[in-house]
Amino acid sequence: MLTFEKRISIKAWAEEDRPREKLLQKGRHNLSEAELVAILIGTGNDKESALELSKRILQSCGNQLDRLGKLTVNDLLRFHGIGQAKATSIVAALELGRRRKEAGAEEGKRITGSSDVFKAMLPFMEDLSHEEFWMMALNRANRVISSKRISQGGLSGTVADLRIIFKSAIEQLASAVIFCHNHPSGFTKPSEADIQLTKKLVASGEILEIAVLDHVIVSDKGFFSFADEGLI
Asked: What are the Cα distances from residue 62, in Å, to 40, 55, 66, 185?
């Protein structure tokens, strides 16, 4: 006679092992990533509990939260048991976490080198699948007036209009600017187009008496600084 193993629901677990109860009793820091995702999705499917399903989703990302953060709603819908409501809950939660990091890159911080630029801009760029071009406007003390996205493009490029860029810098009475763009590929080596654009930016800044301090290429794996490499 054939017997079938019955899947045990999370509700049948000991109370201290259930993700929601565990969070309430022991605090959020005591939960694994899979348990946190399980709370977001609430229920699993006909073969997996919410926790088992969450583990499978994380395993598909190599158990790396940065890769999980790049999944779209359509990516998540491929998992049996994940509908639009659950997928949007996961995406929304990860977006809140991303915005919390962005809030840490507040205006008024003093920039002392390329590593400061990288730390400030990474929250804006780390999960992007397309290129974006940003400008940091600085005052005379090298404190950030603002960080603004100038343009965004496709997988391999974006358009940077010199008139739009320096119009924004002039309106903010910036004494200096730092430019940043990301490489979704993870490689930070500048292209010939990056080098030529940087030369044009520096030349335009000299005419307008707005110092171009650096151009930083940002990726999830690190950064490249034109100033550090003696290219500005």
From this structure: 20, 10, 10, 18
